[in-house]
Design brief:
- This is C-factor.
- One of its GO terms (cellular component) is cytoplasm.
- InterPro entries: Fungal_SecMetab_SDRs, NAD(P)-bd_dom_sf, SDR_fam.
- It comes from Perca flavescens.
- Belongs to the short-chain dehydrogenases/reductases (SDR) family.
- The chain has 272 residues and is of the alpha/beta class.
- The chain has a domain of 190 residues: NAD(P)-binding Rossmann-like Domain (Rossmann fold).
- The chain contains eight helices and seven strands; from the N terminus they run αβαβαβαβαβααβαβ.
- It has a seven-stranded parallel sheet, with helices on both faces.
- Strand 2, helix 3 and strand 3 form a beta-alpha-beta unit.
- The longest helix is centred in the middle third of the chain and has 33 residues.
């Protein structure tokens, strides 16, 4: 009986430790980003501070996010951020730093992304450049500018190992960025610019995981599944609620063993 009680206490402690204190989500005004905000603040163990970032906080496509923020004014801060603009990222990092202070930022979720349709023969240089700037350069600059806040979170945590409650970067990738899985899906979904950008994001993430493992900052890639969003379309397999529930569960289970891992929303490994 005593052993059972110890296991229960240990499990509860691990679950609490897996809950991030401060979180930043890019592309938080719609789709998966908006659902992440909703579930994080309405879940059984809500975060204490959530920075919900989008390009135009006062725009017509941000009403749902602003409604959530008004209901949770002490938790949600809607912050202007254009992931393709380094100046915007720097300003956002300054704003976040002024709020979190020496406690740092525990979890950065690079969710913002764009998809341009087209095959190798159809894709334009402009499509490729814009997609790469958003899906690869954006996350890279976010990592660089928020690194001081992630390092502060490591210092403030006092915990061993790696987890999202200590300091972590989760990049939302896609099965379409998998080279090994390409033959099964290319015919009905070529989207060359998007595929190349997600493959680039994957490499960026594993490079960062290797380079910054000495800092105890966890890096991971998550494929949300084929989701019924503006990007995924109405014929997709699952809705945003199911996808985000799965991804948040996977995030909570991440340790140093998954540093640099490429996983789906069910926690299963995806081939590179």
């Amino acid at each position: 009986m005593q052993e059972l009680r110890q296991r229960i206490v240990l499990t509860e402690t691990e679950e609490m430790a897996a809950q991030p204190v401060s979180v930043l989500i890019t592309g938080a005004n719609r789709g998966l980003g908006l659902e992440m905000v909703k579930q994080m603040v309405e879940g059984p163990r809500p975060v204490t501070k959530l920075f919900a970032c989008c390009r135009d906080p006062d725009g017509p496509r941000v009403e749902a996010l602003q409604t959530l923020a008004k209901k949770n004014p002490n938790i949600i801060s809607v912050v202007r951020l254009d992931a393709t603009d380094l100046c915007s990222i720097k300003l956002c990092a300054q704003q976040v730093g002024s709020v979190v202070g020496t406690g740092g930022l525990n979890l950065l979720i690079n969710n913002a992304g764009v998809m341009a349709k087209g095959t190798v023969q159809e894709a334009s240089p402009e499509d490729m450049q814009h997609t790469f700037n958003t899906n690869v350069m954006g996350p890279m600059n976010m990592i660089k500018e928020f690194l001081p806040h992630l390092r502060d979170a490591v210092k403030a945590s006092g915990m061993p190992g790696m987890s999202i409650s200590k300091a972590a970067v989760v990049n939302i990738s896609s099965l379409l960025g998998s080279m090994e899985a390409l033959k099964q899906s290319y015919a009905f979904c070529p989207v060359v610019s998007y595929r190349i950008s997600k493959a680039g994001l994957n490499m960026l993430t594993v490079c960062a995981a290797e380079e910054l493992k000495k800092d105890d900052i966890l890096f991971s890639l998550l494929h949300p599944g084929w989701v019924r969003t503006d990007m995924g379309g109405e014929e997709a397999d699952i809705d945003a609620r199911e996808s985000v529930q799965g991804m948040l569960s996977v995030m909570a289970s991440l340790t140093e063993k998954q540093n640099g891992a490429f996983l789906d929303y069910k926690g299963q490994s995806i081939p590179w």
